[in-house]
Batch of 3 targets.
Target 1
Amino acid sequence: MNKTIRVLIHGTGFAGQGHTEAFRFAGAEVVGIVGRTESVTREVANDMDIPYAGTDWEQALTDLQPDIVSIGTPGGAHFDAIKSAIAHGCHIFCDKPMTVDGQSAETLYQLAEEKQLKTAYAASFRYMPHVLFAKRLVAQGAIGEPQEVECISHFGLEKEIPFGWSHRKEEGGGRLNNNFTHKLSIVTSVIGEEILAVSGEVRDDLLKAPIVDGVHNFKTRRSHIPDDLNDPALKWGDSNVEWSYTVLAKLKSEFAPRPVSVLFKHGGLHPRLKEDHIVFYGSEGAIYISGHYGSGPLHHYGADRQWTELSLPEDIAANIPDVDGDTERNWRYLIREFVKDIQGEDVPPYQTFREGSQYQRLIDVIRENDCWVDVSKLPSLDAS
């Protein structure tokens, strides 16, 4: 019989609470939670029946000696917490982004490898049911040789959302850290994990946001938008990170002789007319997944030259955790696999700090954006 896995949670907001429920779903025991504010941490611990609540991470690691730590704080708070957990010999579950840059993420990856600790990196929308179905269809040859992928999403976020970590690069904010990571994870899970090349452009069209006290949960921040944005007493914080991006990538695929081209286009502030979508184009067909992060439905274009909606296979549906919320469902899926792995069971490969550190390095490259070719000096076609 497997021993009960003991878990310490870092973070009291949406992610920390979601991780708590996910580890309990996987049969683990959540022995403590650590947050930034004592009153909030105690309130969350009481509401979720967590026996230990504290604000000192190092002390909690010493007191509780957990098997796993689960990192559910903004990315800017990840490095020191993870480094301490590694020193204590803990396995680590970490939500995206892994850190705020590639160098710090690579450091943590190497430290965990040296101590032979297991890590899980939660860019977890690859576990959306229709994404799992697309992965199977591509492997079965439903589109022939994969050629191109198109990922389009526009969130229409309000510019007045209260200022916080998502507005600052040094705190792990930005749409590359918090949207592109999921989209890249989805595409690589279907096409292949080896990323050959990347180039991109980012934009910050927000510039500033209102500062509002009392925002502790990422998911409910919209409810804190000030009623009067012209109030002279209202303070504003500066954004220094991207709210939209356009990225091109090339992936290696075992199903195609040539690299697969991928377009990622996202506008965090841009309005959406029709649903977001992810499309996999191949030599003999295509797969079109509608909806937020591939939520479905899924349509297939085949030899009959018709788009046909395909039902989710029963075995895939049966393996999906039964819980409301895509994010919460995907956490439970990955955490279930992670806990099984730690307990010695055979599980399919999942993303670790290897991929987490790679994604942070890719984001650094995209933000540097030094791949443009200046064509302003080319001779005019109209010149006589």
Target 2
Amino acid sequence: MIQPSPTRKEDPGFLYYAIKQVWMAAGATETHAHYVADAITFAHIQGKLNQGLGVYEAIDIALEMGILDISAEPKVIDEGPVWATVDGNRSSGYWCLNIMADLAIEKAREHGIGLVFGGNHNDAGSFARYVYKAFEQDMMAMSSNNTVPLAAPFGGMLNKLSCAPFDAISPAGDKPPVWTSVALAEFYDADVSEAAIHGKPLAGKWLIDPATGELSDDASRYAEPIEGYGRVWGCSAAGQIEEPRTYALNMWNEAMTAIINPLGVPSTALPSVEEITDPDTNNSVPSVGGSYYLCINPAKFGSIDAVKARSDAYVDAIQNCPPRPNHSVRVPGSVGYQRLIENAPEVDVLTNHWDPFFVGIAGKYGMTEGQLRLAYSEQKIRR
């Protein structure tokens, strides 16, 4: 039985500093490295551990395999008053999505709405940080990208669908905002590796046996570790999306990210995780096929104070709904939001994500945890 992977408490400031320094050592500009470190640290503050330090592995693998061009800069290649298209030039999605978000917010500020498509970029991690930028400007935003194929269509045996991150948020007053921060599947790829590491079953029968087609919750039968990494694993079984509604939303998101997107590549045309991580595969296609960022500025259509009041009244009514016995009523996203506004001095990090980053990835550039921690402490003193 594989023992559970523990968590450790860490200063989010050090986490941000270490990620930024390591990505700069890999060849990134300071701006690019800031965007990567900021988004990953943001996810940790939210409490989204599988969207934290471990997701750095996705861009490290893409860089190692020659899929990601760390020196490239995303560029706006087409634009109108309320829309634009950004070519990521095979850079990371972290940089591309920040450019897309800032551009969509600016267009919405002037015209009430902004829609920006992105393509030809790599992984962007959790999308919470990108939509939160609009929330900080009293605007609504929704955003996503597609992914390499990680789930089979209903009744199918092979991965064809994305397990896409999706975030949407709207303005609020004193109450938590209406905020959806989910995967458009019952699982992430990280859930499979975590279940295998913990020696526990998945929360559902989400894996399809490649020989029999039977559904399984036993990740250890199919998951295979990739040397040097703690979150990104290979898996010989296809993924299963259980809910018809999730299946429908997953395909609709593909329409937004990759079908109507002028730069889009559907998940069915993207390489598999196994192909991306195989050094013998000559692949230059980025690990993401397309993305979008939609921003709406309610102040252009009426009173923003009235919008905030309606949101607060709605959330208050939800929170005060009488609970069922042995249950509590929660609002999606509210726990993570509370953690963000409290700005807690410590965050949780999965140990099996920590060690591969500091020993394997940072070590490639002659960096150690001790050296980074000392440099961070000296920087704090200078400030």
Target 3
Amino acid sequence: MGPYLHIIFWTCLSPVIYTYLVYPMFTILIARSKKQVIPIKNQEYPSISILIAAYNEELVIENKIKSILNSSYPKEKIEIIIGTDQCSDRTNAIVEQYVKQNENLYHIPFNERSGKIKIINSLYERAKGDVLILTDANVIFTEDTLSQMTLHFANYDVGLVDSHMKNFGMNETGISIPEKSYISIEGQLKNAEGLLWGTMMGPFGGCFAIRKTLFTKVPENYLVDDFFLNMCVLEKGKLCINEPRAIVYEDVSNDLKTEFKRKIRISAGNFQNLRHFFSSLFKFNKISFVFFSHKVLRWTSPFLLLTSFIILILTYKESSLNQFLFFAYLTSITIVLIDLFLSKLGVHLKAFRYMTHFISMNTALLLGFFKFLKGSKNSIWQRTERLQQ
């Protein structure tokens, strides 16, 4: 029985090592030898519609609007449509103030909670631009963000372009430092996937551009719209890429409890997308390879890690290697418990916090799976508490 358990153990652990270490490292390294193709700047900028779903964003919505209005992009080519989701703060009043001053800014108030996806689907129907920019209220543009993102649409094969997210507000008292590190590595990996195969696997939902003709209405009960749209574009034979020069800024989440709840929600949405695009895994092409390597294995990692740990409990006495691996697992869990205890005393150890971040992410994935099994009736969300500067 021992040898079979060992085979199962390594069958479970190897994919985790592959998806978190081997695949990202080699993909990023290989992509370094491939230069990004920079399109010749077209005299004709595409017309764009910037779609924003906002819920109680009074602390950030004004800076968001200002960052768009201060863009170097031709003003006559920009349309801004903001849908507010039954806001109970000053969001509506702030937006209306700017509507009066800008004829290309439109405010669509929703009088009952509708959720981000229902709002974006509705704003899409009103949009007139050739390219849609889907962006969150707390994500701030630079002067060149829009021009850098839309530059690639001169190539008709390009269907979706992601921005390059930069974070601020890191604080050692929470999880913002490891979260920023994770986002940074993910950004490099997604850029590499786009460079090598044109199959960037999911934009950061805070800001990305998509051809209007390729937009597919997202099911209203889905919790993660950006990945859904990304996969739809790929399945239509178009490229999804990242543009590192299209810089946007977002305040990174710092509170572990708040971020943990958000990741459970995102994880449930991930499994919705896995069910929807499951058949893509069996096409055995570059899309299925990247989808499996980057996403599917990560989404299933909690189950693989849990299974391998159970096997170690049963077999740790059989060899010194098993004992080493068993105590490595126990040490990881102990580090998290110590970190959580010390944080309550005001002591913050960066190395421990990275382990806490990793295990909390995988725990959220596990709980997100059970949330997915329960089903979701809508995409109504609560705003994540961030620095809101």
